Amino acid sequence: MLTLLKNAEVYAPEYLGQQSILLINNRIGKIGDVDEAAVKSLGVEYKIIDVKGNIVTPGFIDPHVHLLGGGGEGGFATRTPELQLSDLIQSGITSVAGLIGTDGTTRHLTSLLAKARGLEIEGVSTYIYTGNYDVPTPTITSNVKDDAILIDKVIGTAEIAIADSRSGQPNVHELAKIVGQTRVGGMLSGKAGITHFHTGPGKAYLSILHQLLDEYELPAGNLHVTHITRSKGLFDDAIRLANRGSYVDITADDETYQWVSYYKDHGGDLSKLTISSDGNGSLPKFDEEGNLLGLGVASTITLFDQVVATLKDGKLSLEETLRLVTTNTAEALKLDKKGKIVEGKDADLLVLDGESYQLQHVFAKGQHMFLNGEVLVKGTFE
Asked: Could you tell me which CATH class the domain 2-57+339-375 is placed in?
């Protein structure tokens, strides 16, 4: 299957000007001048789309999604539902990393793996983390290192909880062992080997991770820390951690564009910042005594909406904003075929209106998944 996008304003995420992009099956075949007549004469199935007036970007990569649902902090009736393919597509997400949060008892890593495989068959690129909040953390094999080496979709460990009453209350040595094993597993399997940390509202902020970097021979780049906007103090500490070389992640909400601007204004390393949706995770609210006040459910669409809000805010350039959900995430997770519009990489592309940034088209591995507000390819049971 050949798909030609012509008259595209291409942001790869760096601006490439007006170009044609030829997709050959699931890869980007050519960027530049493409002979339309030659495409038509090849005798193979083709599609030609004029995207004049629109911009073309890499598909978004979401590093933190609860594919199986999450929650349960308010009892069995508060478990959130599984994610569906359409949730990702209408959010411009073409690659996703799934994880388990608080509940590692009724949510199983083998089920997470099966869910990821199903979504991959349906059309998007999927990855998972082993583990959950707990330390010791659950695995599919005997340890996190073996999971990374032996299970193709496992790229790291998550979401290890710190500074939170729901965590396993780990000490720094226990965290260092997880980070070290995950790193070695990544090295031996050619994967990221990254440890993704859930940060709670505790006043210790990220001090245990600073201590880990101070006391152990572990690279800062193997840490990826999320939920960093719970307070200004935590966010400032996240900036310090990012400037040591770790990756930090903003969970998308209505104030994300303001936090992104603050991060840049206060000297945060933009190459170490990502944004995620926390899709289908629960959003519990607790009082100062730890009592549950209420629950919400995170949505993947918030990620797309906050990218648009950041673009319209204008504090970051279009290129800087796109990197937060494309190249930065691909580099953190070591997804070599993702995050850029480059010949030979996966054909994961978004077409956005050049003025409103409204989503016009989604291509995932070359397959046309979304057109002008309509999801073209839905999950098996949608």
From this structure: mainly beta
Residue ranges of the domains in the chain?
2-57+339-375, 59-333
Is the pLDDT at 241 greater than 80, yes or no?
yes
Position 294 scores a pLDDT of 75
Active site residues: 278
Task: Tell me which CATH homologous superfamily contains domain 59-333.
Answer: Metal-dependent hydrolases (3.20.20.140)
- Identify which of 67, 126, 128, 60 has the alpha carbon closest to the alpha carbon of residue 93: 60
The mean pLDDT value for 241-250 works out to 98
Q: Give the strand pairing for 2-11 and 54-58.
A: parallel
Average pLDDT on 344-356 reads 97
